[in-house]
Specification:
CATH class of one domain: Alpha Beta
Bound molecules: iron/sulfur cluster
CATH architecture of one domain: Alpha-Beta Complex
Order of helices and strands: EHHHHHEEEHHEEEEH
Helix content: 40-55%
Shape: globular
Strand content: 15-25%
Number of strands: 8
Radius of gyration: 19 Å
Structural class: alpha/beta
CATH topology of one domain: Lambda Exonuclease, Chain A
Largest sheet: 6 strands, mixed
């Protein structure tokens, strides 16, 4: 069974919501994808001004901001690309949109794409995930960030291989790694320090714990039934009016 790291947190929170709640993409999601595409294009040789000009060209169609605010918002996305480039320019960048396809046991394969892989001063690999929201979670929460942890788990059972014109993560004996980052190019920051949050390198115990959670996710989404787990998240669930488990949490 294939597990995508980006779905692990939602499935642990409520498997039924993760399976059925397919809300329509929002303007923020489209613009987030646009920034990811721009970042990828720049890594392949497109210049920052060229990528910014493309953002300008489609921004008006994707944004749901009122007309009077569009120009200011557009500037924040253009600046985000510059700030990201400044940040990644200080790192040893070894891979963009790196495909991951790693079996953690006979039944479960972690499949996804890592926004960036970078290398630290000792040659250990670090995972980077670009977040396009304006708020960053507290550092403590990021230590338990499911998407980053699932990628760390995949790297712990993988190896780097050449594929096409870049790197990929395949089954292997484990990659020397030293943690993971969330990077927030759109969150306000001073001119030199972009906002980032680190997840420390997971210990063997923590990796084993995340392996159990990924197994839980596979189990929760493999059968004809899915468990409904009520909680505060029910307030934002489009299924809450029909879901008996949400009583008292609407
Ligand atoms: S209402 Fe709550 S329990 Fe029901 S599916 Fe949504 S999140 Fe899950």
């Amino acid at each position: 069974m294939k597990i995508n790291p980006s779905k692990v947190e939602a499935t642990l929170s409520c498997p039924l919501k993760a399976m059925l709640d397919k809300s329509a993409p929002t303007s923020a999601m489209y613009l987030g994808s646009l920034l990811h595409l721009a970042v990828e294009a720049v890594s392949k040789g497109v210049t920052v001004p060229e990528a910014q000009s493309e953002i300008r060209r489609v921004f008006g169609d994707l944004s749901d901001d009122p007309e009077w605010r569009k120009r200011t918002e557009e500037e924040t996305w253009l600046t985000a690309l510059e700030d990201w480039q400044r940040w990644i320019g200080t790192k040893k960048d070894i891979g963009t949109e790196v495909p991951v396809d790693v079996a953690i046991n006979d039944d479960i394969v972690i499949v996804g794409r890592i926004d960036r892989l970078i290398e630290d001063a000792d040659g250990a690999v670090q995972i980077v995930d670009i977040k396009t929201g304006k708020t960053a979670p507290p550092a403590k929460e990021v230590e338990e960030h499911a998407q980053l942890a699932t990628y760390q788990l995949a790297l712990s059972k993988g190896k780097l291989i050449e594929r096409g014109d870049g790197l990929a993560v395949d089954n292997g004996e484990g990659i020397e790694q030293s943690g993971a980052y969330l990077v927030f190019p759109r969150k306000s920051h001073n001119k030199t320090i972009i906002t980032s949050r680190e997840q420390s390198k997971l210990t063997e115990d923590k990796l084993a714990g995340w392996e159990r959670r990924v197994e839980q996710v596979a189990h929760a989404t493999s059968g004809p039934r899915a468990l409904a787990l009520a909680g505060d998240h029910c307030k934002f669930c489009t299924l809450s009016k029909a879901c008996p488990a949400a009583e008292g949490n609407r």
